[in-house]
Design goal:
Blueprint (H helix, E strand, L loop, with lengths): L1 E5 L2 E7 L5 H7 L5 E4 L5 H10 L4 E4 L5 H9 L8 E2 L1 H7 L2 E4 L3 H14 L5 E4 L3 H4 L1 H4 L8 E7 L3 H9 L6 E7 L5 H11 L4 E4 L2 H13 L4 H16 L4 H23 L1 H6 L3 H30 L2 H10 L4 H14 L1 H11 L2 H4 L3
Parallel strand pairs: 3-4, 3-6, 4-5, 6-7, 7-8, 9-10
Antiparallel strand pairs: 1-2, 2-10, 8-9
Helix pairs in contact: 1-9, 2-8, 10-14, 11-12, 12-17
């Protein structure tokens, strides 16, 4: 492991230079890796592993025609490398359980019966194991229970793999039945193309992930954008101006500078007026949102968020209600303005 100083705290991480792709191939040489679920993370992890030379098959519910057809379009062959979920699970030795959290709970009674002693049950989220009182997912004692959690959407796991950068991933071992759980975990993390791997626990992964999704990464970001856009419109700014100052400059310029070399680098590459405003107002925003984040973390830790996810996502009309909620967002003036702004980017004008 490489020891890296993260702002004064030294952590041990694993890079592909230390644990090479060739070593990962050796560790998993006799494994049949099964990716259960071809929805969000499934396609990226399956394709990355296949491209890296691993023995991968996919399990997908035949009733979900869009996901089944997508797997076929991506080159997985029914009856050879693509099977119904239970049949695929029976064929595997390292079973990547990449269905949605609600989907895992629904299929667990069947999947549990497909596990053999010595198999590895792999998750990319700690949800089902940590909240077992709600999900009722309790693995047999004779299988390894491991986690590799890419810190990005499935789409970016694939895109970053294709451009050679990789997505960073956390990893954890919940249960080591074989004595090989750690090396299987790390090998799987390298196999899916992780940029580097850092250790965590199932509990810490799910607490941080649920907080991050509801906070800075998605919920907070969407809420703050909407608040600023609405404020600018209220004061007479045009939709184009309000959207560019709220979203377009953030996504097309500033976030890229942060990604390149950090927040201080982004500040250093902005005007002195922007620097001063950011430095003066950041503490005010931090103070304003700290109570919200305290409430959010408590809601995650005590299982309230889990109950909400499972209740909503297992409802018979889940998909219809979700589409209705997403339509409200997409049809709002802010995101209609966004479509117009994106259509004016040079690369999109060139397609017309």
């Amino acid at each position: 492991m490489a020891k890296i100083d993260f702002g004064g705290v030294v952590e041990e991480v694993i890079t592909s230079e230390e644990f090479t792709l060739e070593k990962a191939r050796q560790v998993l040489a006799n494994e049949t890796i099964v990716v259960l679920g071809y929805g969000v993370q499934g396609p990226a992890q399956a394709l990355n592993m296949r491209d890296n030379g691993f023995n991968v098959i996919v399990g997908q519910r035949e009733g979900n025609k869009s996901c089944w057809d997508k797997a076929v379009a991506d080159g997985f062959v029914p009856g050879k490398t693509l099977f119904p979920i239970e049949e695929a699970a029976r064929r595997g030795t390292l079973i990547q359980y990449l269905l949605s959290d609600a989907g895992q709970m629904a299929t667990w009674p069947q999947i549990k019966q497909c596990l053999n002693p010595g198999d590895a049950l792999y998750f990319s989220h700690g949800f089902s194991i940590v909240y077992k009182d709600q999900t009722h997912i309790i693995p047999p004692k004779d299988v390894d229970v491991i986690l590799v959690a890419p810190k990005g959407s499935g789409r970016n796991v694939r895109l970053n793999f294709l451009d050679g950068s990789g997505i960073n991933s956390s990893y954890a071992v919940f249960q080591d039945a074989t004595g090989r759980a750690a090396e299987r975990t790390i090998a799987a993390g390298i196999a899916i193309g992780s940029g580097y791997l850092f250790p965590t626990t199932f509990e810490k992964e799910v607490f941080s992930d649920l907080t991050g999704e509801r906070g800075v990464l998605m919920g907070c970001l969407a809420g703050v954008m909407e608040a600023q856009y609405t404020l600018l419109r209220k004061h007479g700014h045009s939709p184009s101006e309000a959207f560019n100052e709220t979203v377009e400059e953030l996504t097309q310029s500033l976030i890229r500078l942060v990604a390149e070399n950090g927040m201080d680098w982004m500040y250093a590459n902005c005007s002195t007026t922007a620097q001063r405003g950011a430095l003066d107002w950041a503490p005010k925003f931090r103070k304003a949102v700290e109570p919200v984040f305290d409430d959010l973390y408590e809601s995650v830790a005590n299982g309230t968020e889990t109950r909400r996810v499972l209740d909503v996502n297992t409802a018979p009309d889940y998909r219809e209600k979700l589409n209705a909620e997403l339509k409200i967002i997409g049809d709002s003036e802010m995101w209609r303005a966004g479509r117009a702004v994106r259509s004016l980017r040079p690369e999109n004008r060139a397609k017309k």
